Amino acid sequence: MYHTIIIAGNVGKDPEMRYTPNGQAVTSFSVATSRQYTAGSGEQVKETIWFRISTWGKLAETCNQYVKKGSKVLIEGRLTPDKATGGPRIWTKQDGSAGASFEVTASTVRFLSSRSEADGERPSGGIDMAELPLEDDIPF
Questions:
Q1: For the chain, what are the domain ranges?
Q2: pTM attached to this predicted model
Q3: 5-132 has which fold?
Q4: Distances 79 to 30, 59, 105, 113 between C-alpha atoms, Å
Q5: Which of 62, 103, 97 is nearest to 82 (CA)?
Q6: For the segment 6-32, what is each residue's pLDDT rounded down to a tens digit?
Q7: b/e for 99-131, b at 16 or more Cβ within 10 A?
Q8: Is there a contact between 51 and 104 (Cβ–Cβ < 8 Å)?
């Protein structure tokens, strides 16, 4: 059996790289995806889903070097369930409401932002930036 997930979104904060005891690089960062739709009642609904991305080895080193907060990425990988629940990681936001993040081990990361976007300039057009919550609301 096999599964794969493809995510296109915006990086929530700069990546963090560390090394395992045997020297293998691991880089983690968060990615937000969003969609907007009209509910049956006519109300505009904006939905954001957070993913926690882990990369390993050479890919981890490359992501640590080129991925920046706000940059657009396309991730291909596999879902990694929470060991306690078997599903997404559940956490409590500062306002007391429940939040969830999905853990993904990436096999491929494609950089969708141009160099100018990575340096902080924002050209017109393209994928809209997900509304990023305050850093305190991000569970990682």
A1: 5-132
A2: 0.75
A3: OB fold (Dihydrolipoamide Acetyltransferase, E2P) (2.40.50)
A4: 14, 17, 6, 24
A5: 103
A6: 999 999 999 999 999 999 999 999 999
A7: bebbbbebeebebebeeebbeeeeeeeeeeebe
A8: yes
